[in-house]
Description:
The protein is an all-beta fold and 69 residues long. It is built from no helices and 4 strands. The chain has one domain. A hairpin with a 5-residue loop joins β3 and β4. The C terminus is likely disordered.
Amino acid sequence: MLLLLPEKVDNQQVFEIQVPLEVKREEFAKLGEVRWTCPIPVDSCVNMYLVGIRFLLNLPAASQSPQPY
């Protein structure tokens, strides 16, 4: 998956992406690992970063997780 981010991230950094599921009206969290980044100049002072990630796990979003007893 490709992301466009406003700040640079490190290779192999792992982060959570929450994705809404239209069919079930739920959210799932996906863990993604940064594989590569490429700066994209927007103007003379600002860069955006195109980031390639691979998904590691699919987890229920925190709001959808069962509560422990």
